[in-house]
Predict the 3D structure of the following.
Amino acid sequence: MSSPQSSGRLVIPPEIAAEMTPAVKAFVEVLIDHYEARLADLESRIQKLTPQNSSLPPSTQHPHAKPERGKRDGKRKKRGGQKGHQKHQRELIPAEQCDEVISLQPDACRRCGTLLTGIDAAPIRHQVWELPEIKPIVTEYQQHRLTCPCCGITTCASLPAGVPNSQSGPRLVAFTGLLMGHFRQSKRRASLFLQDLLKMPCCPSLTVKMQNQVAAAIQIPYEQLKGELGSQDQLFMDESPTKQANQKAWLWTAVAPLFAVFAIFASRKGDALPKLLGDSFTGIINCDRAKMYWQAKRLQWCWAHLKRDFQALIDHPDKQVQRLGHDLMRQTKLVFQYWKPYKKGEIRWRTFRRYMSPVRDEINALLLRGEFSCNKRLIGMCSELHKHHQWLWTFVDVEGIEPTNNTAERALRPAVIYRKLSFGTQSETGSRFLERMLTVSETCRLQNRSVYDYLTEAVTAHFSKQDPPTLLPNL
């Protein structure tokens, strides 16, 4: 029986209500109220139990989106540090490292006013950190041109080694490159920063000139790291769409234990892989299931991606699909349940492999079940996973291989934020600057080095026409 709704509440149609006795009508009204309240309660429970973005990658959700929260029992915690929490404070530096030490002594007793003398052997130390007055250092080089008294030819003095022909010194050029490539500031914003905080005349076109100088300074270290990729035993790889001059492009990353390389190519096709890794790569690649990686032969498919795929099966309306999704998710949770203690060193490699043996067999059997289920939603995915099931279990067969591609995901995240802020690059030179700066930034993070110090050394070497400092590990 279909019933009209008024303000979202079911009501008895007038033609039916006219045929009902008052007692029956009252009873039906009570039933409607009861089941509507029951339905509202169940919908509230489902909302609480359903995870957000269950089968979608985190990047598809707005970063400031907050989950809907129902009423809580009891009092909410107040904002800020909770009572009894461990105190965190900045440690004092030694007094000899301070630029100035000011000794303060009271003149008189705070009770009776008697004059006081002497010093306190253990005074209360209070340190105040402050920025120095920012004032640019301007050096003028006066190049005299003198005439030879013998032949009449004029000769002009040359600039000293390391002094650039431009008006920007190496530290300024490195800092500007850091603002744009590492801290994701636009050229206009970077020029405003230099004018406002550093009191330096600057315009967006000057930042472009300094950007090109930085790109040239780190070209050789970038090519060295790129050439080193082919000899790695394991790489974490990922890619993300971007734009170059309103044309589609793809930003790729390959992350090794102590360095990372970024590259922008015009397509996502498989020919980009040998351009980045070379033709001699024989290591293992951690990646998602994108087919351009298949040419590498030795892969480890990301179980974090697979977990989202299995959650999508659970969210599907087809009961058969849901059932297989729940069965696969149950085994996937065991994969991470056994991996975590091994990663922490709580169990040995042999024990981990013994735990994983029945999980491996069960997942392979479930994939086979989906392949022959005659369900279109299951056949394609399960057939692909079962056919290449060896790429699911490389981390069980080879010690030291991670089961996920989270390393590449973390390395790529700053580049994705950069793309969302700037909508890509506008030229070939802009793309080269971006891929090299992202490479330097992530590599310095992996090696626990200062990005600014490295850029300053590289630009100084570039201006002096010397070899730049290397980014290769252990060199």
